[in-house]
Amino acid sequence: MRLVPANLDIVFEEIGERESDFLREFDKLSGNEDDPLGAWMKRAKAKGDTKESDQVILTLLVELHRKFDELNAYIKNEKFIKLELAQSSALDGINFENFRIKEAKFKEGVGYYGRIFMPIFPKRDVAIFFEALDEKTAKITRINESDESDYNGYVTARERAMIRELKEMNDE
């Protein structure tokens, strides 16, 4: 399995007894709940109301609106508190379906829930469910559709950066 280097952090925990808690947080982080702005955007796109709009500017405006919502929630002390997860590690490598952590912390065949902090726009934690293939390597089994698109874009960017680095080394 070919993995590209990535400088990302993950927090995770065995699914065990907390599966319903993890599913609830997964839905919240994935924007499936409590996101009237996202729901409005999806309806507008489905009706074709955004065809004439510049998608980049529209996305920036939506994210700006979300920031205002976050500030409003902060002022009202309504902050969403993420679950405490038992383990953490740095990622050693990633690809489109798998990742590897630096320390051996997984149990082969066990299912986990985790969050990877992604340096994408907008910066956020990407919630995932995954299964350990060995003590360091895992296969992603569930990820939100929009998060998957952004995650895959990040993997592609890391692959391109690695190719450029290898090309520069070969040119020397």
Automatic annotation (TrEMBL):
<protein>
    <submittedName>
        <fullName>Uncharacterized protein</fullName>
    </submittedName>
</protein>
